[in-house]
Amino acid sequence: MKTDDLIAMLASGNPEVPLARSARRFALALGCGLVGALVLMACFFGVRKDLAEVAATPLFWAKVALPMVLALGALWASGRLARPGVPVGARWAAIALPLVLVWGASLVLLAALPAGDRLAVVLGSTWRTCPLNIALLSVPAFIAVNWALRGLAPTRLRLAGVAGGLLAGALATLVYCLHCPEMAVPFWGVWYVLGMALPTLAGWLLGPRLLRW
Protein backbone atom coordinates (compact mmCIF):
# COMPACT_ATOMS: atom_id res chain seq x y z
CA MET A 1 0.00 0.00 0.00
CA LYS A 2 1.37 3.39 -1.03
CA THR A 3 0.90 6.80 0.59
CA ASP A 4 -1.88 7.86 -1.80
CA ASP A 5 -3.75 4.62 -1.12
CA LEU A 6 -3.46 5.15 2.63
CA ILE A 7 -4.77 8.72 2.39
CA ALA A 8 -7.70 7.60 0.26
CA MET A 9 -8.45 4.74 2.67
CA LEU A 10 -8.45 7.01 5.71
CA ALA A 11 -10.56 9.62 3.94
CA SER A 12 -13.16 7.06 2.89
CA GLY A 13 -13.66 5.78 6.43
CA ASN A 14 -14.29 2.29 5.06
CA PRO A 15 -12.29 -0.29 7.06
CA GLU A 16 -13.67 -3.30 5.19
CA VAL A 17 -11.43 -2.89 2.16
CA PRO A 18 -8.11 -2.96 4.04
CA LEU A 19 -9.40 -5.76 6.25
CA ALA A 20 -10.21 -7.93 3.24
CA ARG A 21 -6.88 -7.07 1.66
CA SER A 22 -5.10 -7.98 4.88
CA ALA A 23 -6.90 -11.33 5.10
CA ARG A 24 -5.93 -12.26 1.54
CA ARG A 25 -2.29 -11.35 1.98
CA PHE A 26 -1.94 -13.14 5.31
CA ALA A 27 -3.70 -16.25 3.99
CA LEU A 28 -1.22 -16.43 1.12
CA ALA A 29 1.72 -15.76 3.44
CA LEU A 30 0.66 -18.47 5.88
CA GLY A 31 0.21 -20.99 3.10
CA CYS A 32 3.62 -20.22 1.61
CA GLY A 33 5.28 -20.24 5.03
CA LEU A 34 3.82 -23.61 5.99
CA VAL A 35 4.66 -25.22 2.66
CA GLY A 36 8.18 -23.81 2.80
CA ALA A 37 8.71 -25.11 6.34
CA LEU A 38 7.39 -28.55 5.36
CA VAL A 39 9.74 -28.71 2.38
CA LEU A 40 12.73 -27.71 4.52
CA MET A 41 11.79 -30.25 7.18
CA ALA A 42 11.47 -33.00 4.57
CA CYS A 43 14.86 -32.09 3.12
CA PHE A 44 16.81 -31.74 6.37
CA PHE A 45 15.01 -33.55 9.19
CA GLY A 46 12.17 -35.83 8.13
CA VAL A 47 9.09 -36.89 10.07
CA ARG A 48 9.54 -38.92 13.25
CA LYS A 49 8.94 -42.60 12.58
CA ASP A 50 6.50 -43.08 15.44
CA LEU A 51 4.38 -40.04 14.59
CA ALA A 52 1.19 -42.08 14.12
CA GLU A 53 1.59 -43.65 17.57
CA VAL A 54 2.55 -40.49 19.41
CA ALA A 55 -0.22 -38.52 17.69
CA ALA A 56 -2.70 -40.71 19.60
CA THR A 57 -1.49 -39.28 22.93
CA PRO A 58 -2.83 -36.10 24.57
CA LEU A 59 0.73 -34.97 25.31
CA PHE A 60 1.54 -34.67 21.62
CA TRP A 61 -1.46 -32.40 21.07
CA ALA A 62 -0.48 -30.35 24.09
CA LYS A 63 2.91 -29.88 22.41
CA VAL A 64 1.24 -28.84 19.16
CA ALA A 65 -1.12 -26.51 21.00
CA LEU A 66 1.73 -24.26 22.19
CA PRO A 67 2.89 -23.03 18.75
CA MET A 68 -0.64 -23.16 17.37
CA VAL A 69 -2.03 -20.79 19.99
CA LEU A 70 1.01 -18.54 19.70
CA ALA A 71 0.59 -18.45 15.93
CA LEU A 72 -3.06 -17.42 16.31
CA GLY A 73 -2.13 -14.71 18.79
CA ALA A 74 0.70 -13.44 16.60
CA LEU A 75 -1.56 -13.48 13.53
CA TRP A 76 -4.19 -11.52 15.43
CA ALA A 77 -1.61 -8.94 16.51
CA SER A 78 -0.01 -8.79 13.05
CA GLY A 79 -3.35 -8.14 11.41
CA ARG A 80 -3.98 -5.22 13.75
CA LEU A 81 -0.48 -3.80 13.36
CA ALA A 82 -0.77 -4.01 9.57
CA ARG A 83 -3.49 -1.34 9.64
CA PRO A 84 -2.72 2.20 10.82
CA GLY A 85 -4.50 3.47 13.87
CA VAL A 86 -5.84 0.06 14.94
CA PRO A 87 -4.94 -0.73 18.56
CA VAL A 88 -3.47 -4.11 19.48
CA GLY A 89 -4.74 -3.97 23.04
CA ALA A 90 -5.33 -7.32 24.73
CA ARG A 91 -4.00 -9.26 21.76
CA TRP A 92 -0.61 -9.35 23.47
CA ALA A 93 -2.29 -11.24 26.33
CA ALA A 94 -3.27 -13.96 23.85
CA ILE A 95 0.46 -14.40 23.24
CA ALA A 96 1.53 -14.21 26.88
CA LEU A 97 -1.10 -16.61 28.27
CA PRO A 98 0.13 -19.86 26.62
CA LEU A 99 3.69 -19.03 27.65
CA VAL A 100 2.65 -18.49 31.25
CA LEU A 101 0.70 -21.76 31.26
CA VAL A 102 3.60 -23.77 29.82
CA TRP A 103 6.12 -22.20 32.20
CA GLY A 104 3.82 -22.78 35.15
CA ALA A 105 3.28 -26.41 34.20
CA SER A 106 7.03 -26.80 33.74
CA LEU A 107 7.74 -25.53 37.23
CA VAL A 108 5.17 -27.89 38.74
CA LEU A 109 6.56 -30.88 36.85
CA LEU A 110 10.16 -30.05 37.70
CA ALA A 111 9.32 -29.54 41.37
CA ALA A 112 7.92 -33.08 41.49
CA LEU A 113 11.18 -34.58 40.18
CA PRO A 114 14.33 -35.36 42.16
CA ALA A 115 16.78 -32.49 41.92
CA GLY A 116 19.30 -34.59 40.02
CA ASP A 117 16.83 -35.37 37.22
CA ARG A 118 15.60 -31.87 36.49
CA LEU A 119 18.35 -30.67 34.20
CA ALA A 120 18.10 -33.77 32.01
CA VAL A 121 14.37 -33.18 31.53
CA VAL A 122 14.95 -29.56 30.55
CA LEU A 123 17.78 -30.36 28.14
CA GLY A 124 16.31 -33.48 26.58
CA SER A 125 18.50 -34.95 23.86
CA THR A 126 18.21 -32.21 21.21
CA TRP A 127 18.61 -28.92 23.08
CA ARG A 128 21.73 -27.98 21.11
CA THR A 129 19.97 -28.08 17.74
CA CYS A 130 16.28 -27.45 18.48
CA PRO A 131 16.25 -23.60 18.47
CA LEU A 132 18.43 -23.41 15.35
CA ASN A 133 16.27 -25.97 13.55
CA ILE A 134 13.16 -23.92 14.32
CA ALA A 135 14.90 -20.75 13.14
CA LEU A 136 15.82 -22.47 9.86
CA LEU A 137 12.26 -23.66 9.28
CA SER A 138 10.96 -20.15 10.00
CA VAL A 139 12.82 -18.54 7.07
CA PRO A 140 10.09 -19.08 4.41
CA ALA A 141 7.35 -17.85 6.75
CA PHE A 142 9.50 -14.89 7.85
CA ILE A 143 9.89 -13.79 4.24
CA ALA A 144 6.23 -14.38 3.41
CA VAL A 145 4.82 -12.66 6.50
CA ASN A 146 7.03 -9.61 6.02
CA TRP A 147 5.85 -9.47 2.41
CA ALA A 148 2.26 -9.49 3.67
CA LEU A 149 2.92 -6.77 6.23
CA ARG A 150 4.88 -4.52 3.88
CA GLY A 151 2.11 -4.60 1.29
CA LEU A 152 -0.39 -3.21 3.80
CA ALA A 153 0.13 -0.09 5.89
CA PRO A 154 2.07 -0.78 9.11
CA THR A 155 3.12 2.34 10.95
CA ARG A 156 4.55 0.71 14.10
CA LEU A 157 7.29 -1.03 12.20
CA ARG A 158 9.26 -2.55 15.06
CA LEU A 159 6.16 -3.96 16.77
CA ALA A 160 4.87 -5.27 13.45
CA GLY A 161 8.25 -6.92 12.89
CA VAL A 162 8.05 -8.57 16.32
CA ALA A 163 4.54 -9.91 15.70
CA GLY A 164 5.48 -11.10 12.22
CA GLY A 165 8.66 -12.75 13.46
CA LEU A 166 6.76 -14.56 16.20
CA LEU A 167 4.18 -15.71 13.69
CA ALA A 168 6.94 -17.13 11.49
CA GLY A 169 8.59 -18.84 14.46
CA ALA A 170 5.32 -20.33 15.70
CA LEU A 171 4.49 -21.74 12.26
CA ALA A 172 7.97 -23.24 12.04
CA THR A 173 7.61 -24.80 15.50
CA LEU A 174 4.24 -26.25 14.55
CA VAL A 175 5.88 -28.01 11.60
CA TYR A 176 8.91 -28.99 13.69
CA CYS A 177 6.61 -30.88 16.07
CA LEU A 178 6.23 -33.47 13.32
CA HIS A 179 9.94 -34.25 13.64
CA CYS A 180 10.94 -33.41 17.20
CA PRO A 181 11.18 -36.43 19.55
CA GLU A 182 11.01 -34.35 22.75
CA MET A 183 7.85 -34.82 24.81
CA ALA A 184 8.73 -33.07 28.08
CA VAL A 185 6.84 -29.86 28.82
CA PRO A 186 9.90 -28.14 30.38
CA PHE A 187 11.81 -28.76 27.16
CA TRP A 188 9.16 -26.95 25.12
CA GLY A 189 9.03 -24.12 27.62
CA VAL A 190 12.73 -23.42 27.12
CA TRP A 191 13.92 -24.57 23.70
CA TYR A 192 10.76 -24.19 21.62
CA VAL A 193 10.31 -20.72 23.04
CA LEU A 194 13.94 -19.88 22.35
CA GLY A 195 13.54 -21.14 18.78
CA MET A 196 10.52 -18.88 18.29
CA ALA A 197 12.36 -16.00 19.94
CA LEU A 198 15.06 -16.01 17.24
CA PRO A 199 12.81 -14.93 14.33
CA THR A 200 10.97 -12.64 16.75
CA LEU A 201 14.26 -10.91 17.52
CA ALA A 202 15.03 -10.76 13.81
CA GLY A 203 11.68 -9.07 13.27
CA TRP A 204 12.45 -6.53 15.99
CA LEU A 205 15.82 -5.74 14.44
CA LEU A 206 14.79 -5.77 10.78
CA GLY A 207 11.20 -4.55 10.98
CA PRO A 208 11.97 -0.84 10.56
CA ARG A 209 13.96 -1.64 7.42
CA LEU A 210 11.91 -4.44 5.87
CA LEU A 211 8.48 -2.94 6.51
CA ARG A 212 9.14 0.67 5.46
CA TRP A 213 6.77 1.52 2.61
TrEMBL record:
Transmembrane segments: 26-47, 59-78, 90-112, 132-149, 156-176, 188-207
Keyword vocabulary terms for this entry: Membrane, Transmembrane, Transmembrane helix
InterPro entries: NrsF
Domain of life: Bacteria
Name the UniProt record assigns to this protein: Anti-sigma F factor
Provenance organism: Pseudomonas tohonis
